[in-house]
Write a structure and sequence with these properties.
This protein is mainly beta. The protein is built from 1 helix and 10 strands, in the order βββαβββββββ. The longest helix has 7 residues.
Length: 125
């Protein structure tokens, strides 16, 4: 069982089962929403149990995807493509050890110029 929440604890979640190896997204939108790069794992939508949904606000980031954040503290928690039945969850929102390791970097062509990627993980443009 994996549990997590936003910073203020208003929006909480739990899920069972294995987590997919997380990716770090360096796209412009993730950098703007998170303040840096955004690391996330993903699970089937049906595996996610949410509490505090009344405070969860969905922002339509593009025609294909939405981003979920707490309307109280502003924590950026979720990303979901509308044509997929899975949901991405911010690695920083988990309360307990996850047992996973970063697997790759994506949208590295958009990364900020103030940092380097030297961890040896695969990188996708």
């Amino acid at each position: 069982m994996h549990k997590g929440s936003c910073l203020c604890g208003t929006v909480t979640f739990q899920l069972s089962g294995a987590l997919a190896p997380p990716s770090v997204c360096h796209c412009r939108m993730c950098r703007k929403m998170s303040g840096h790069a955004w690391a996330s794992t993903h699970v089937p939508q049906s595996a996610l149990e949410l509490s505090g949904q009344d405070s969860l606000i969905w922002y339509r980031a593009s025609v294909n995807a939405r981003r979920g954040f707490c309307g109280v503290c502003g924590s950026f928690l979720f990303w979901q493509h509308e044509e997929e039945d899975r949901i991405s969850i911010a690695m920083g929102a988990f309360d307990t050890p996850t047992g996973v390791q970063l697997a790759r970097h994506i949208f590295v062509d958009d990364k900020g110029d103030y940092y380097d990627l030297e961890d040896g993980l695969p990188q996708q443009g």
